[in-house]
Amino acid sequence: MQAIQITKVGGPEVLTPAELPVPAPKPNEAVVQIKAAGVNFIDVYLREGRYPAPLPFVDGQEAAGVVSEIGSEVTNVQRGDRVAYTGGLGSYAEYAAVPADRLVKIPDQLDFEQAAAAMLQGMTAHYLVHSTYQLKQGETALIHAAAGGVGLLLVQMAKNIGARVIGTAGTQEKAQLARDAGADECIIYTEADFETETKRLTDGKGVHVVYDGVGKETFDKDLNVLRPRGFLVLFGGSSGAVPPFDLIKLSQKGSLYITRPTLGHYTATREELEWRANDVLQGIVRGELKLRIHKVYPLAQAAQAHRDLEGRKTTGKLLLKP
User: Fold this and answer.
1) Residue 239: how many other CB atoms lie within 10 Å
2) What's the number of CA atoms in the CB half-sphere (13 Å) around residue 284?
3) Residue 248 and residue 264: Cα distance in Å, rounded?
4) Residue 120 three-state SS
5) What is the DSSP string of 184-214?
6) Residues facing residue 295 across a β-bridge
7) Dihedrals φ, ψ of 305, to 5°?
8) Which DSSP string corresponds to 15-69?
9) Cα–Cα distances in Å, from 187 out to 171, 178, 289?
10) With 90 as the cut, is the pLDDT of residue 297 above it?
11) Of 148, 204, 237, 307, whose CB count within 10 A is highest?
């Protein structure tokens, strides 16, 4: 099979096309013939070595496709099932062996590209607003990178709850996408200081929660725009890692909370995985959530997909197609 293998960590150039054997399933696994694979910042962190993985490895954590083979202990899926998953390495390939308890069935109304685009970013947005900080009607949230893949879904979910949403984006075009998704206001951070603007938009009171997947560039000002006892939910670091931080600042700035969550801990049980996945997938079927697929690349162009993602040239989801 064709796959994109990493033999040494580094820049996008280390994503190397390779011919590898089709994997055989372990007793608890199913082999998925991949029809579409998602491209995410976690793939970049793995490629860079920020998240260590044993070398060599096939990058990619998210895909949709058809079950082609099952292990001897698998009972929840069978050959021919249309499935999607996130959380197991190896999706930049034509086939991947995946623990069967991580697979969810795709509703008939969705195609493979929609399903692959929904899993990681959709369930991330879901756990952020429903569990990490349970956003309530009437509260105000600041959402960074509001035109990104997670951002657009976060905006929609927050508005469906009845919250007020202030977004940030880098260009007028991206700000308009965030507004079209439901953001009440969107600050263009290349033209205005988001701290100053957020304080102005909240009459100096600050926001209840900041959802931040950017990290290094936004962290310090995030703490300044929270109201007392506000929540900073740092779920990614697209601009780099946050430097070491003295926790006394949290008390000085209003007894703030900070957390660094990750999807795996919010889909740890089969029940929670199914709840989140089905909420997201059915939300798309019902039209309550709209996916924006920015571009679909051939599998061999994985390196270009990473360059585009890291260069902030994209809005919405990037996919690879074997």
Assistant:
1) 17
2) 26
3) 29
4) helix
5) SEEEETTTS-HHHHHHHHTTTS-EEEEEES-
6) 318
7) -60, -40
8) -EEEE-PPPPPPTTEEEEEEEEEEE-HHHHHHHHTSS--PSSEE---EEEEEEEE
9) 9, 10, 23
10) yes
11) 148
Handedness of CA 60, 64, 66, 67 (dihedral sign): positive
Between CA 128 and CA 263 the distance in angstroms is 9
Which segments of the chain does DSSP mark as H helices, in order? 41-48, 112-127, 149-161, 172-181, 194-201, 219-224, 248-252, 263-266, 270-286, 302-310
User: What number is the average pLDDT over the span 124-152?
Assistant: 97
Q: How far is CA 252 from the centre of its chain?
A: 32
What are the structure tokens assigned to 169, written together? 């984006």
Q: What is the mean pLDDT of residues 79-83?
A: 98
Helix axes 149-161, 112-127, angle to 10 degrees: 60
| SS3 category, 74 | coil
**Spatial separation of the C-alpha atoms in residues 289 and 119, rounded to whole Å:** 13
Return the closest-CA partner of residue 206 out of 224, 187, 233.
224
pLDDT in tens, 9-33: 999 999 999 999 999 999 999 999 9
